[in-house]
Model the fold of this input.
Amino acid sequence: MTLVIFAVLLWAVGFGVNVVLANGPARDTGAVRLAVPLIFGLTILGMWELIVRGMQVSTVILPPPSLIAASFAENLGTLWGDFVQTILKGALSGYIFGCGAAFVTALLVDRSDYLRRGLLPLGNFMAALPIVGTAPILVMWFGFGWQSKAAVVVLMVYFPMLVNTVAGLSETTSMQRDLMRTYAATWGQTLWTLRLPAALPFVFNGLKICSTLALIGAIVAEFFGSPTLGLGFRISTSIGQLDLGMVWSAILVSALSGTVFYGLVALAERRTTFWHASHRGGR
Amino acid sequence: MAEASDPKAGATAGTGWPRWLRLPPVLGMVLALLAIWYVAVVPMNVKEVLTAAERAGVEVSPPSAVDRRDMGNWALVLRNPHALGDSWSSDRPKLPAPHQVLVELYDSTIDEELNGRRGIVRSGTLSNRSLVYHALVTLNATFLGFLIGALLGVGLAVGIVHSRVMDMSVMPWAIVSQTIPIVALAPMIIVVLYSIGVQGLIPKAVISAYLSFFPVVVGMVKGLRSPDAMQMDLMRTYSAPTASVLTKLRLPSSIPYLFASLKIAIAASLVGAIVGELPVQKGGLGARMLAGSYYGQTAQIWAALLVAAALAALLVYAIAALERRTLRRMGMMP
Done:
């Protein structure tokens, strides 16, 4: 019971520090902006550990963070193999191929008004569909290897990316396009100097949405059949053995790679669209 | 993701066109897709079809199935154009033709209910072999999850807008939470909740809620902050308390944002419910898909997919209709 009281105390301390930091004089500095969410996260982790130990929750239901960390450290080799199989082979290759194909399609579609008006509502519709459901079909077609996972990822990221890129390419105003016309710029020049830069925020929005979808697609596809490694395989077999430490370690790997993946895309966005209103700082 | 829940982002090219002019291009696309599908059926199923034709006594080149296994699908199609008649009607196709899917859809909905032994006509309850029953199971979980997710999202957004601490500490973690492929955790959540005695609707709804709360948070934070300085100043000159500012200014002006995010949220919630049904074979469209994949019944998977697609379209359409009515009532839309 004392541990649970400690947990409540920890919460009070963490929250108090955050209140002071967030409303204090240094509230807009980068350090505070980083510290506040970190303190929040650490408080939650600490409370998790204390409450699980204090209430003696069975590790089958919720293992404490320390146990997960130990299991993670013990199985680094296995998890690295799973990471390579699922993230690098399945998700990343599908992501690159799917987003690339969608981008090229968007460029083609953009040249014809008929195609755009036909594909866009369809793309919007497809983007809202539960495409994860095609996973069993694609696993049946492409076998249990990483190829079928990449195929699921391609299907999942294709439509959101297509819709975003097409929307981005029509972002320019008629004034800007007229200017390019008076310069007698070719289609390629207009695309390269005006419309692609203008479309970049939309493209990156699509890339960010797709980064999460890619991981989901690759992992879920493994539930329908996979070789004896991969994060989805690890999660589903470890549950069968009630090895919850391993399950949570696999989840940790997928969470970390998801966050890093998203972070990298966001970083690239900052580097390339620094001129856009949403990145010029301040609200 | 923020842009996705901006109500203005929906206004893409072509919305200015009258309704009857917008239809032909879409129809053309759909027909083109169907045509591609029909063509694709031939090479996808060519091996099974040729084996069946060989058994029926038709001459096939090359004659041995082992040789055929190592050949490309298109090469086989080109060498045996005379033996491909059954491509669109084979029993266990790798890729069923559209009409086969439609037949399966009819069989497992209307026919099963009207004529089946366990159908609604004979037994008085929905047959557990019909897609109607499975769709309702999925829909239940979707609605419950959507409700929890939307309420949680609005609550969090109100907190974030009013408290600096919450804004700074919760918002980054909400974003991180979405980079975690939660759907992958579905089996674990279900097993864990099962082991503490919770089963049935709740575990699926938890997954749906997790997927649907984020778009609502992002959209509502944007919406609640959308009143401009002039409007906020007016509330200040009235010396309105925070609660009145919330109910009389912030909430009404956030309604368009709310509906834009609800449309995304309900689609996400449906995906969550379907994935949540994969690990427990107790009904639902997800369970149906997995069963189809175990028994090689591709038409069954496709039919379940079609129903899921129709459900998604219906749900989004329903929210859009509600949006139009509400906005019209509020005078924000002609």
In short: Residues 176 and 194 of chain A are 8 Å apart (CA to CA). Chain A has two domains: 2-57, 72-279. The radius of gyration of chain A is 24 Å. Chain A has a mean pLDDT of 84.
